[in-house]
Structures are given as C-alpha cells and as structure tokens.
Write a structure and sequence with these properties.
This protein is mainly alpha-helical and 520 residues long. It is 63% helix and 5% strand.
Length: 520
Amino acid sequence: MAAFTGAVFSRTAVFSRGGRRQAPDTGSAGDGGEEHGGGLMWVVSAFVVAQLLLVAHGLGLGWDETVYVSQVGPQAPAAYFSAPRARGVSLLVAPVASWSTSTTLLRVYLALLSGLGLYLALRVWRGLLAPRTLALAAALFASLWVTVFYGPQAMPNYWVAVGALVTVGCFLRAQRDRHGRGDRHEQADRHGQAGRGGSAAEWGMAAGAALMALMRPTDAVWVCLPLGIALVGVRRWRSWRLLAALAGGLAAGAAQWIVEAYLHYGGPMARLAAGSRIQGGLGWHLAVDDQLRGLGGRPLCRPCTGPLPDVPLVAWWLAIPALAACAVVVALRRRRAAAPVLTLLCAGSAAVPYLFLIGYAAPRFLLPAYALLAVPIADVLSHLVGGASEARRPLVVLLVALGLAGHLAVQYAVLEDVVDRTDAAGSGYARAAAELHRLGVRPPCLLTGHDAIPIAYYAGCASGHTHGHNANMTRAAVIRAARHTPVAALAEQGGDPPGYAKHWRQHGLGPLTASVAPPR
C-alpha cells in the first residue's frame, strides 16, 4: 500500500499541465483500466489482504460482537440487547452466523464484505474527483489501524462510515446533475440522461442514509445534519425531492429501531433517554483528549485515564485538522469550495457527539469522520503535487511520500499492539468457558455477573444480570433457574459473590471467581 500511494503521487503529472490542476474526467469507454477504478481496486484488495493477515485469523469475538452475533447465531441464546444498540450488525452477519459458529469464517466474510463496501462507496465519487485521488482517499482511510482492525469485526461503526461516503457522494452527484457540468452534461440533459443519473444519485443517497440508520440511527442523523441544512437553507442546493429521499432513507433504516422503541421503551425519546443513561448521560463532555488516549490502542477508553499516546501518534492526529484546513484554503482558491467544505462539515458533524457529548472514548466512534475526511485530504495532497512546478515537484513528492510512510508506520505499530491485547482478552473468555464446562456448567446453563455476556457466548450459556446497564432478570429468577439449570455467578478475583451465591462452590477462573450453584 505504501508503494502504491507513492506511485499515485509520482504520476500525478498526468492530471496537470503547466502546473495547473485540471478538472477530473470521469473517463470514457476507451480509457485504461486505472482510469476506470483499477487503482481503487488495488487499494481495496490490499485492504482486504491486510485484514485477513493481520486481524482476521485467530481473533475471537469481543464483548459487543458476542451480543450482535448471538441475536442470530446458534452458539448461545441471544444476549441482552441494550437501548443504544441497533439490529443492523446482526442482519449483516446473519448470512454466515445463522448457520455457522466458525469465527474465522465470519471474519473472512466480513473482511471481503468490508472491501466490497469501501470500493462501492468510493466508486460513487467517480466524476467528482480524479480516479487516482479516490485511490489515495481509499489508501488513507483503509490504512488506519482502526479501519483495518474493525473491518472484519461484527461492529457497526465501519458500516456507518461506508454509508456516510455513499450518502455524501450521492448528494454531491445529485446536485451536480441538477445544475449541469459543461457541454457533455448539457448534451446528456437533452437526451434525458441527466435525469436518470439524478434519480440514481437520489436512490443512492437514500440507500446510504438507510445503511447508516440501520447500524446506528443517531450517528446517521449527525452525518446527515449538514446535508439537511444545505437542502433547506442553501438556495442553489434547495431541493425538497432530495430532502425527501434523505429523510426517507433515514426513516427506512431506523424503522426497526423505532418499532422496537415503542414496543419495549415507550417510544423513541424514551429509548434515547435510556441509551443516554447507559452511556453515562449525554451532555457537554470535552472528550477530545479521551479520544486521543484511546487512539493509542485502547478499543474502549472508559474511564479514560492514563498518559497520552506517543508523540508521533499525537502529531499524526493533529495533522488531520491542519490538512482539512488546507483543503478548504485550496478549494477556495480554486473556486470549488462547496463540495469539500460540505464533506468536511459532515465529517465534523459526525465527530461532534464523540468529541463533546459523551464522557468516554472509543477510536471506532470516529470512523465515519475519518472516512469523510480522507476525501478532501486526498484531494489537497494530489493538488499540492500536481500544482507544483516541475522544479519543485520532486521535493513535494518526497515530502508527501515521507509523510505517508510515517502515517503507515504509526498505524501499524498501534495495530499490532491492539490485536495482541484483544486476542488475549478473547482467549481469556474461551479459557473461562472451557473451565466452566469442566466444572459442569454446560448448556443449557446461565451465567451472571462480571463479563457474563462474552463468557456465556463462548460457553453456550444464557447470560443474565440483576443490576446495571444490562439488567434483564431478577435475583429471584436466578435462584429459580439454579434449581434445574447449571448456574454460575462471576465476580472479579477478590470480589464478593452476590448474596444468593455466598454458599455456592467457588472456583478460580484466572482473573475471575465463579460461584457455581450446587448440581440438581
């Protein structure tokens, strides 16, 4: 991937004449394969291979993954599904998880699907940006450790990012088709082709919004907020038809979440309030430093204490807003500011709740923002190289290539560490499940207490909690279950078991203690 990104810049002169950047062409039937997305295909292929080699093989399911997969899989009874979650991931994994318990097969399936999703999402932007710029955007986003790490995982954030790229790209295509783009498009208008393209862009925008809402409804609203404001408040972009398509996509994707909210929570607002309580109360929380701490390889930073990551990673993160600002400046100078500014606004809006409204951090929360930021940043880097004079271009190419090399070095150093630690956690769940089986806690069975949800999945047991955010049963229900079912109450090593389990047999499970109900 590093070699490819270097090649992108070394050949940027193809797009420039006399030091001036030319408007990208969408290509014609006679164009070479690279103009038709060959570079993008190579980057996406490298992304899939990186997932398979560095993440997918041998990595067990994490806590949240066991919740999503258990809803459709035969491994264990469905875990408690709390208010902030949506059913999109469970639907995504169902084609494999509904009949197979192989984690490796699921990882391979998700890695391939994530590559296809990224390819299709960036293909939407063809005609808006040069093909090599899109390949660079794919390389910037796909080489992030958080992207490679979560691509093959049963988690929603990557797919919100894919939906965001589709939604914003289709919005810009729809606006371009509405207003025309030169002689070629004037001819297309006369033959009715622009209308068909506009309709396709509208459907694509609705589909992207629906995908986001299916995965995380609140994230979808944040991403789409600038688009909605533009459709209502910007005269040139005002379109009630596009607004209806955007709102319809959001409503279609969130329909299941809304119905479930009425059935189990008393309505969407009540469900949002319940989700806010689980997340510690949404409100003003300056979490910028928390996100920076999490970026050092902590999948969940809650509570988010400890030192900041190493200086290279901090410098990399701070370079992102600097490059975004450069993208705005360059776009203003080229009098083509609308598309990059709107893309950056959507990226910023996607990041707002996770930088300022919650009191903890997880690097995956910012994946939609990173995906959108990659597009204007790739464009400005391409412009810096293509717009340089012949004398300065080698130096500019060298500096950009060194920056990309540093980017890759920082990302993959963190990736190796986070994969090792996550794999150790998953192995701990599997060992605890195996020890519980040895103690006689075998399906059908029930686990409750600390880490009960992931360990219960590995053990094939149901999970239940009598208190906390995942409370779904009473103490009396646990005691009743223990009369006819193997039950174990888990606690951290040195912690006290619940009152009803004080006289049960206690066994060490590594960092945990299991209180096992007497056999019946």
